Amino acid sequence: MSTEKIDQLFNYVQERCLWQFFSRSWDRQENLDGILKAATELLTGKDPARETPMDRLFYADAKIMVQDFKARFPWLEEAGAAQIRDLMHGLKDRLSEIAITGSLNHELNHTLY
Amino acid sequence: MGCEISTRERAGIINPMYDCQPAGAQYAGIGIKDCIPLVHGGQGCTMFVRLLFAQHFKENFDIASTSLHEDSAVFGGHKRIEDGVMVLAQRYPDLRVIPLITTCSTEVIGDDIEGTIHRCNLALKKEFPGRKIHVVPVHTPSFKNSQVGGYSECMLSIIKSLTSAKAAPSGKLNLFPGWVNPGDVVLLKRYLSEMGVDGTVFMDTEDFDSPMLPDKSIHTHGRTTVEDIQGSANAMASIALARYESAAAAQYLKTEFDVPYTLAQTPYGIGNTDAMLQTISQITGKPIPDSLIKERGVALDALQDLAHMFFADKRVALYGHPDLVIGLAQFCLEVELKPVLLLLGDDNSRYKKDPRILEMKKTVDWDMEVFCNADLWELEKRAKDPDTKIDLILGHSKGRYVAIDHNIPMVRVGFPTFDRAGLYRQPTMGYQGAMLLGESIANTLFAHMEFNKDREWLLNTW
Amino acid sequence: MPMVLLQCDKDIPEREKHIYLKVDGEDTRSFLPISNAPTIPGTLSERGCSFCGAKLVIGGVLKDTIQMIHGPIGCAYDTWHTKRYPSDNGHFQMKYVWSTDMKESHIVFGGEKRLEKSMHEAFDEMPHIKRMIVYTTCPTALIGDDIKAVAKKVMEARPDVDVFTCECPGFAGVSQSKGHHVLNIGWVNEKVGTVEPEITSKYTINFIGDYNIQGDSQLLQQYWDRLGIQVIAHFTGNANYDDLRAMHRAQLNVVNCARSAGYIANELKKRYGIPRLDIDSWGFNYMAEGIRKICAFFGIEEKGEALIAEEYAKWKPKLDWYKERLTGTKMAIWTGGPRLWHWTKSVEDDLGVKVVAMSSKFGHQEDFEKVIARGDSGTYYIDDGNELEFFEIIELVKPDVIFTGPRVGELVKKLHIPYVNGHAYHNGPYMGFEGFVNLARDMYNAVHNPLLKLAATDIREPKQTPVKEAAE
Question: What ipTM, to 2 d.p.?
């Protein structure tokens, strides 16, 4: 059941989110960490930090994604905080695998842009 | 008063009139049937020239690149030539000619073109026994000459490479028009046919204007065959119509195979067309037929309505290929237009001694400037200058903004004319071409009068 | 279904690594086309050169800058009148091109003096222009002309001018892409931070990677104005040279074309800590999403929603009119790279159009990760497609319309397939809400062109329904 839900979230991100495909693996990791953290906070009723420019960037990306999640996946409303954290953790693993560890992109680990 | 010849003194160019040599070579190359030119250089040297041809003709032409990359720039590009030739031969089974066109980069690197072609020939022979593919070396470094010279060089190289020995005389006439539009080729072929002359036009670009057909077949390619080119050595004579674009090839056939050669007047305007037809008639012994006398008369009849009423004293600036510009200046004189500025766009030192220019120098009794190695900035500076006062611009589309920004009527002629529809289909040569150009000039001036409220009422009763 | 070896490629089997047919259940961990790799000679590839990637795509868009091309005449001639990027100052950048017109003697003896003279002349001839970019080309790079030294000398002689140099000979890299890179990195190294902008708003961005094609930048600028966001620099649509020197002062980099300009956004993040936000500027849904993200960044969400509501009210009915009529249309996209992933989902969501084949000239694997993630199964994803491949793919997928360049457009016309200019547009702009209606309109008018039916008719064949005799 949870795999199916992660699939839905994963498919959404694959289809819509350019931040998963930044130029280098560390940029992708940074986005994954930052945006999914902010998204988890938003989904669990917390207010993400908006202190630094990067905070605000992650917040902006997360906010729109979370709005879409809620609109597309009504089951999220019923999920508890712990389940949401699990789902988002699972999503992060999947994204990390496709965009970083399992990516066939030869340019991901060039030290320069 | 009189004609002055000057040359650009600035080192740099602002808005060039011509492209570089490889562009001209590519234009000559695509005139051959079953031929894909292979340009040895960076990819831009091919991609942009294909785009340029597409802009002008609204057609796609096949031209390949050796796609020179950094390693070739360091270690030489021989391998890329060999690969390119083999890939073309493998994937295009009808291919018979590959002009191998060099560029600035590969000439600077100093790739051994002839040696590489020798290796290509061995490989081709091995992989395709019984199939002959002519790989023709065409040396066109971009830092020499211009598209004009590049066209001439490729024509010459193709004739040189494909002709070998003189066989039985064919009785045919070789006609080398130079870099012209399909509309001109169709006209010249019609003239030959009406005169009953068996001739070959090099290159036959009639199908550069090609149809959309129900069976979706594509016929956009040159019509000049390998046999046509080989046969040029057996012709009764050659006539070159462009001093700077096609004379070299005809001259070669004379030197190498004793094919008599005449450099005729480039047939822009009535008088030049007369001279061309008389030359053809003299060489072949065929009379000029009534049909062409009639066509000449119709053109004169049409131009007569325009010349002393509308054209007289109009000051004209012309730019483009040298044979075109000089020929059109002569046409202007016939219809009482005043050529005041002729821009020739490369550093060819022969322009200054061109007999047609020297002849004009003798006859014009107004200020006329022949500007060599020109760019279109020279045109723009004169368009801005109230003393020059240009009433009409004759030139290609690259100068369009000079006309637009300075509100000067302009008639597109030459290459490229991508900002007007269908011009490649119309002849500029011959009686018909002179008439069409004259009428196009008139209609452009008329529209200008109307939109600028400049005696537009004159036409109320014309 | 993995990578595909087309019939026409049997003699160049390495092409198999560049063509992918997506099947349900697959993703980019298993198959990702090789890209940004050397071109196979003689394939009739569509690629251009590194020089044009720098000059024609990016630098040449600047509306107040002399583009001095140090080389033979062709490089200047060919990168002039081949783009449609207007400006609000009379299109200076589309009217002029400059060349040092290198001849053989300069190749032999070096072209630095000639470059210096040409630069002074250019400034003298156009005294109101004070900015210049100098580009190397293949031969001047090969002979080793030091254009940086010459630029320095000219700047010393003329204190009021500023010159940027770009060393991007056509043979560098494998396509235009290398030129994008050289210009991006050179600019951030040498020019960013050398001008301080006047800050007029609490909210500042750079808009990176849009080139004002048929007025794209100018259309989007209306949105930023309405939102009260100051765009410090457009990289490089309708932009001034000095705007780009002040890029370090923006709070946010909004990136549209990540391929041609992602580099500078990355460097600005690394060096100046400016976050990079990638958006899609084509498509209703995407444009709204981009505006929402930018507004969320600045905490001005209400303004964003108001703007989106206004734009939707104005343009959505028009878009829907086209969607109703375009749904089910099969589209191919054969362009540079990013438009594949920008468009494949937006035409599907906003217009009901299915993209059946896509080919990229200069995209990298990053671009293929994006497009394969977004695109459909049953669709072909091609790197550096060539002419024979296009013919074969057309037979396989039978597109109703192809978004590509004018030359390929002329080619497919003979196959009775209409084209819409995917680079320079037919009648744009295509970005933003209004722009996407323009794209829809152009696509609709293309696929409904009555001439296509006439072209397919063979009048020698007997008519299906016999004409009634007049006497009956």
Answer: 0.98
CA atoms within 13 A on the CB side of C171: 25
Residue A112: inside a domain: no
- State which residues form the domain around A25: 3-102
Angstrom distance (rounded) from CA C359 to CA C353: 17
Please report the DSSP string for B310-364 in residue order. Answer: IITT-EEEEEESHHHHHHHHHHHHHTT-EEEEEEE-S--GGGGG-HHHHHHHHH-
Distance of alpha carbon B116 from alpha carbon B111, whole angstroms: 8
Q: Which of B324, B323, B376 is nearest to B345 (CA)?
A: B376
Angle between helices B290-304 and B270-284 (to 10 degrees): 170
- Residue B203: cis peptide before it, omega within 30 degrees of 0: yes
- Please indicate, yes or no, if residue A9 is contained in any of the structural domains: yes
Strand order in the sheet with C203-210: C229-236, C203-210, C252-255, C276-278
Give the whole-angstrom CA distance, residue C272 versus residue B163.
66
Crossing angle (nearest 10°) for helices C216-227 and C301-326? 140
Residues facing residue C166 across a β-bridge: C135
Tokens 């953790």: give the residue: A89
Rounded-to-integer distance, Cα B57 and Cα B53, Å: 6
| A108: closest CA of chain C, how far (Å) | 8
Question: Of C80, C38, C41, C35, which Cα lies nearest the Cα of C59?
Answer: C80
The secondary element (H helix, E strand) that includes residue B128 is: none
**Chain B residues with CB inside 8 Å of C101's CB?**
11-13, 16
DSSP 8-class letter at C448: T
Give start and end residues of each alpha helix (H) in C166-300.
176-190, 216-227, 241-245, 258-272, 284-298
Interface test with B, best of C5, C10, C68, C77 (most B CBs within 10 A): C77
Residuewise pLDDT in 10s, chain B (462 residues): 688 999 999 999 999 999 999 999 999 999 999 999 999 999 999 999 999 999 999 999 999 999 999 999 888 999 999 999 999 999 999 999 999 999 999 999 999 999 999 999 999 999 999 999 999 999 999 999 999 999 999 999 999 999 998 899 999 999 999 999 999 999 999 999 999 999 999 999 999 999 999 999 999 999 999 999 999 999 999 999 999 999 999 999 999 999 999 999 999 999 999 999 999 999 999 999 999 999 999 999 999 999 999 999 999 999 999 999 999 999 999 999 999 999 999 999 999 999 999 999 998 999 999 999 999 999 999 999 988 899 999 999 999 999 999 999 999 999 999 999 999 999 999 999 999 999 999 999 999 999 999 999 999 999
Q: Is A96 domain-assigned?
A: yes
pTM (predicted TM-score): 0.97
Query: A107 lies in a domain?
Result: no
Select from B44, B87, B108 the Cβ nearest to the Cβ of C139: B108
Q: Which helix (H) or strand (E) holds C197?
A: none
Nearest to C262 among A19, A23, A97 (CB): A23
- Counting the structural domains of chain A, the total is 1
**Closest-CA residue in chain C for A49?**
C297
The closest of C44, C301, C357, C139 to B62, measured between CA atoms, is: C44
Q: Are strands B13-14 and C98-99 parallel, antiparallel or unpaired?
A: antiparallel
Distances in Å between the alpha carbon of C147 and those of C68, C98, C167, C205?
A: 11, 15, 8, 32
Question: Do B151 and B179 touch, CB atoms closer than 8 A?
Answer: yes
